[in-house]
Amino acid sequence: MTYGGGDAAREPQLDSQNTLKPRISTTTNQYGHAVSRISVTQILEATGFEHSYRRPIDALADVLLRYISHVGKLSVSYANMSGRIQCNVFDVILALEEIASVHGFAGQSDPNHSLSSSGVVLDLWRVVGKEREVPFAGSIARFPVTRSRQVETSQDTENEVEWGHIPDWLPSFPDPSTYTNNSVSNESSVPRKQMERPHFSFRKFFSVNGSDGLAPIGNTNVERENEMVQRNPYLVPPLPHRERQVSDMTIPSERKAVSVFETFAPVIEASGGEIVEERGVISSKRPAVRFRIGVGTKSMSKMLSLRDTGMKEDLWTVKEEEMDSKKRRAEMILKESMEKPNELAQL
Amino acid sequence: MMSGSGNSSGAASTAGADGRHDDDAALTEFLSSLMDYTPTIPDELVEHYLGRSGFNCPDLRLTRLVAVATQKFISDIASDALQHSKARVAAPIKDNKSKQPKDKRLVLTMEDLSKALREYGVNLKHPEYFADSPLTGTDPPTREE
Cis peptide leading into A111, omega within 30 of 0? Predict the structure, then answer.
């Protein structure tokens, strides 16, 4: 048999509700649909067709699968009505009779007709006995094939310590070295990359006792918790309800420039001067920067306004380094513009 | 399973015990002949789709029975479609001056199949065209506008 028609197998088709639906409806049906297509093609060839388009074959394959499901459903319902869960040959015959009742079969009018010799069975017997046997082309394996699941490690297999309160089917605990805060065991079992030492150590800043946070701790969880609480000021238990002496707040009368270094001076002293200083002293006077007026960037207007009002020194200089780099960039651009007055880049 | 068959056929049959035995023997013979016959539809496919409907039976003869029934059903539809196709080929052509003679090949088309399936209660409608643009199906001069 030859196939015709240039339609792709997955071309969407409009169904009765005018919704686009792929030809092969679900991924789970694809294999069965393909196998039934082969069977349909063989049946059509045996009937006498020489050629066919692809779509009628797909339609007939779908009809075939639906017919099998329909017979199965009817047989099961007849078996359930008789109080059984496993189907009988008579359940199947009754189902086939119900389907054939639309067209009619021999002996349908007789309500007491024998199922063993019903017209349906005789028709099938004729098919088996007389018609030429056309076996299925090729052989297929039993499907669907179930993938063997990988059984995850459970408590009974992995855990050395047997906990009485933990059921066996739960997954095992992770490696103890991953959650104990033992510095020795950490380095040995979990190899870490060599990280750069940060300039500012927050651990030291927040340490209450002044000691390193990575100290070996006791075995029980309660002791571990208490020590963690003592070390971390945010986990300190709240103060009980009573009056306490609080130090007076000093409101700065003058507005003076606050620098990063001044703010974190005690920290720097505590950490032993580890902060890398790029420059020693910030000079109060800065070289004048000339800007082009009328380019229209936000930063430009801000800088110009500052220059006019002279409030440069009132800026919060936490972003001091940023401003320095911007200033340097601006100087470079100015130099370039001075050299090439014709080709001017926007600032 | 065959012992349980006595209930339904006993109540149904009016021929008496001998007739019942004959019927049962015929059925047994038919089912055993099924094992010699290999249906075109493979057993694995039928088993899978029967299993999806809840049909649970370890007996292979029942599976073969359903396979043979399905094969008969499809072949009936195919033969009806063949009749329609032959009728189309044999029909006289309206204008005999036309260029090509009627195609003698027997090709299964959607039209013939939908006519054949209609008698079995399956409504199959094949869309004539896919409207992927608003101008599909309109006359060429309208499209050019």
Answer: no
